[in-house]
Amino acid sequence: MAEKKTEIEKEEHRDERIEQTGQVTLDENGKMENIHLISIIGEIEGHDNLSNNSKTTKYEHILPSLAAIEDSRDIKGVLVLLNTMGGDVEAGLAIAEMIASLSKPTVSLVLGGSHSIGVPIAVSTDYSYIVPTGTMVIHPVRMNGMVIGVPQTFEYFKLIQDRITGFVCGHCRIDKNTLEKLMMETGVLTKDVGTILVGEDAVKHGIIDEVGGIDKAVAKLHAMIKEAGEQPESGK
Q1: pLDDT above 90 covers what percent of the chain?
Q2: Does residue 168 contact residue 160 with C-beta atoms inside 8 Å?
Q3: Does 29 have pLDDT greater than 70?
Q4: Which DSSP helix (H) or strand (E) runs through 83?
Q5: Does residue 234 carry a catalytic annotation?
Q6: What is the pLDDT of residue 13?
Q7: Are 20 and 27 in contact (CB under 8 A)?
Q8: Residue 191 has what pLDDT?
Q9: What value does the mean pLDDT take over residues 23-36?
Q10: Average pLDDT over residues 136-157
């Protein structure tokens, strides 16, 4: 009876955690290889709170979780699921940098879409997948609100854009010239500049590693965890 109650409480805690943070630890695979799942959904929220009607990913939830994952002896790998429209540049880059710096194997899977600042997050993992119908929108950095039309403002825009471009090119196979060409394409988006890449197109351009779904992503992560476990200790 007590065991059944414990299982129910565990499930309730699991459901509550998914609802509040979009995260859960996958620990029932029978391989003693606990995987932490993080979902990046809706709009990535920065320093300002968005509307209660908006689906958001809060970076203040993600960053501490990533630090705890790095420090954990039980978590062996991280799976990142993405279906995001983009959002705050600073918050998105912070999440991408944290994921990229994890010492544990990481895999990302683009589902509905990973647009704008979602692109650096998608490529920040050790290996990346996109479903056949998944999309990625590549476009230049945008700013909301009033913009002061002085040279310093445009230099600041360029600095931010260079940070994003540098990160993406440093974590996937696309080169800088090709990425910038995709960003400035004028014949794809009706009211904007940029490019929409669907499934295989993202792989052909070298942004994502492979087309696949959750089955391939989980299998790949287990294989990477096994390989990492077979490596000799580095003696940190």
Answers
A1: 47
A2: no
A3: no
A4: strand 75-87
A5: no
A6: 46
A7: no
A8: 66
A9: 66
A10: 67
- How far CA 215 is from CA of 30, 55, 229, in Å, comes to 16, 26, 21
The DSSP bridge pattern shows strands 75-87 and 34-45 to be parallel
Taking CA atoms, 204 is separated from 23, 34, 188, in Å, by 30, 32, 18
Out of 39, 65, 116, 124, which one is annotated catalytic? 116
**CA 220 – CA 212 distance, rounded (Å):** 11
Most confident range, picked from 38-47, 137-146, 199-208: 199-208
> Quick check: 40 and 65 in contact, CB under 8 A?
no
Q: Are 34 and 25 in contact (CB under 8 A)?
A: yes
Is residue 191 within a helix (H) or strand (E), and if so which, with residue range?
none
Is 116 designated active site? yes
**3-state secondary structure (DSSP) of residue 211:** strand
**Residue 138 pairs with which residues in a beta bridge?**
195
Q: How far apart are CA 209 and CA 113, in angstroms?
A: 15
- Higher pLDDT pick, 83 / 147: 83
Q: For residues 69 and 157, which has the higher predicted lDDT (pLDDT)?
A: 69
How far apart CA 83 and CA 121 sit, in angstroms, is 11
User: Would you state the structure tokens that stand for residue 27, as one six-digit string?
Assistant: 């620990």
**What's at 173, amino acid-wise?**
R
Asked if pLDDT for residue 190 goes beyond 60, the answer is no
Annotated catalytic residue within 36, 115, 139, 222: 139
Contact 121, 207 (CB under 8 A): no
